[in-house]
Amino acid sequence: MRYVLHYYKEGKLDTQRALDKIQTRTGIRPKTAKHLYLRWTAIAASVLVAASLGTYLYLKPSTTTLTAEATQQVYRLPDGTMVTLAPHATLSYKGDCRKVEMTGKAFFAIHHDANHPFTIVDDNYAVRDIGTQLQVEESAAGTRLTVLEGAASFGSTRSGSTAVALRAGMSAMLTDGESTPRLDRKADLNSAAWATHEFHFIDTPLDDVLHTLSTYYHVHLTADNMSKRLTADFDTANLNSIITVIEQTLDVKIEERKE
């Protein structure tokens, strides 16, 4: 600093003149230099934006959507969960298949994972489960959950709502606009026969048995003695075989009429 002050003379240290000399030697005009600077800045910004967008799109999980058209469809999710979609139902998830959304009716045979519960969510409800078999059915009135095996919690997404715990053999209905599901007095476990292809009756009144079969096969069944009760398991392949077993087991005569 002392050296500069000692030898400084007015007009000798002119930064503008020095800059002009450099520009003259390089052949770059002041306006051109500024233009190039702005141009390269814009290019660098564009590259940065493109790189950031590419990284976002690469890291953003894609949505997987499963559908069933006119007939039911069975899908195996990456975690091993089996899902049966009723006609016109859909199921979708982003990245993690342990959190799904659905429309319509679906049956789930959920792969057990105690550290990673399986969640079925919607704008109105949430079902959480570790590993079990259950059915979720959406309708204009609301959503019904039926648990066939294991246990699950079922609640509304509205603030202040209370979830209910359902065990095997239980079902509940969450009506649109309500904050807490209502437990059904009597769960129809055979409501999932369309997906399991099995009927299960435990000390069931014959009237209820025939009603279940009539609904499933779209017929009308009656018997000459409705006071009997039935405990049996059937597959859904052949109605005539089921009728024959019931008649022989309960010593009744069943009449079938087409609807």
UniProtKB/TrEMBL annotation:
Domain (FecR protein): residue spans on this chain: 66-152
Membrane spanning stretches: 37-59
Pfam family for this entry, one: FecR
Stored InterPro entries: FecR (IPR006860), FecR_C (IPR032508), Ferrdict_sens_TM (IPR012373)
GO molecular function: sigma factor antagonist activity
This protein's record includes keyword Transmembrane: yes
Keyword terms of this UniProt record: Membrane, Transmembrane, Transmembrane helix
Tree of life domain: Bacteria
Sequence ranges assigned to domain Protein FecR C-terminal in this UniProt record: 199-255
Name the UniProt record assigns to this protein: DUF4974 domain-containing protein
